[in-house]
Amino acid sequence: MSKPLRPRFLFAVWTPLHDHRANTIMIVNTAVAMARTFPDWQVELRCTGYPVEPPALLASMGLEQPSNLEFALLFPGASEEESDDILKDRSAGRSTRRRREAITNWRADLTAGAAGTVIYTRNIPVVGFFRDVLENRDLKVPLLLELHQLKATKKWEEEVPGASLAAKKARVREAVQWERGRIALADYVFCISEPLLRQIESSLPPGRAGLLPSAVRLESAEPPDFENRDLDLLYTGQLYPWKGFHIALRALRLCDPAIRLTVIGGNSPSDLYCAKKFANNWGLAGRIDWLGQLPHSEVLAYQRRAKIGLIPLPRGPRIARFYTSPIKLFELMASGAALVASGVPSLRSMLEDEREALFAAPDDEREWAAAIERILSDEERRLSLARAAWEKVASFRFETRAARIGEAVEALLGAREAVAMEAAG
């Protein structure tokens, strides 16, 4: 009897891996968790660039490389720009020489070892690329997509500025149909938020989609020190407009002048400049500590010092309302901070108001300020919210995430094997 093939989990992402970025933290931690949870699998993390070498990347996150985890380029020998050109979808009128060569190379790779291979990605164009690789070939390689948002509406509205409403709606319908068709090329789709899952379930066959939120690495099963904390308010992450940092600034204006805000992050100089300018114009300069980008381990240390963590998503952008599953949310829950968050569907689907967080209406700085002062003036309430959030976060560990992915992978590989056995008679 032949020995079962060692499964090959090919994690292919259209992104270079930078050390401080949230998507890199999620990708690397997920890959490490997959390798640790399934030690008999071969796990390959393929990306389009390594600005930071893998050993340093892992060290910056406090991780060690499992022996069954390999880091490599998605397209060996290609620059980031060349990789971008390869992955631009041919249905948009592109079929470059580099793309054809990459397809040929991957066909050879998968032909040599397709039997135990499964491809996992966070990018719709990567699904399209590997469908081209597998096209007209007897290569039954399952494709799984981790879906983070639907972009068609935003993309096509931007491409037809000044168009009539009827023309814009027609283009949007066309874009949505195209995007849903590309998503349907995956054999299974994980959605990072419940609102996103509800939006796409109807366009997929039953049992082809599931929920897979972001996750956190719990360093210890012991609870953190909930009581002894010296930072009033903490905001971590980017300062993009859709992140809603302006809501935190406006709320701070209305809070007791003794309340201070600590800000970590903001890798865009223009966003940081605008945030500081608003703070100065509103007389907040002396109440904010701007710490900039910090190593991830230091960010976690600051979170453990915070009384309140802020998740101020705005009402308008769809990515904030429906699609986001912010890593900082789970990190703050694990740190022992109490949470004040925008009451948008993406967050309400994960937290219970008044128990695990206080929700405030998006863009309503008065409600935000009231929630902040309510927690800081009531120590018993702060501790209750923090403890409940910490207890809840145990269900959002990377190990749990890896197990869910593994279940889907094993189901797809098992179904493929059953089909092959039936065909063989």
Tally of alpha and pi helices: 17
Helix content: 40-55%
SSE pattern:
EHEHEHHEHEHHEHEEHEHEHEHHEHEHHH
Major sheet details: 7 strands, parallel
Q: Could you name the ranges where pLDDT drops below 50 across 5 or more consecutive residues?
A: none
What does this structure look like?
This protein is an alpha/beta fold. It has 17 helices and 13 strands. The chain has helices at 22-37, 54-60, 80-87, 97-113, 124-134, 152-159, 165-183, 194-201, 245-254, 269-281, 296-303, 318-323, 327-335, 345-348, 365-376, 379-393, 398-423, and strands at residues 8-12, 42-47, 69-73, 117-121, 143-147, 188-191, 209-211, 231-236, 261-264, 288-292, 306-311, 338-342, 358-360. The strands form 2 sheets. A 7-stranded parallel beta sheet has the order 3-2-1-4-5-6-7, sandwiched between helices. It has a 6-stranded parallel beta sheet with strand order 10-9-8-11-12-13, sandwiched between helices. Helix 13 packs across helix 16. It is globular. The mean pLDDT is 90.
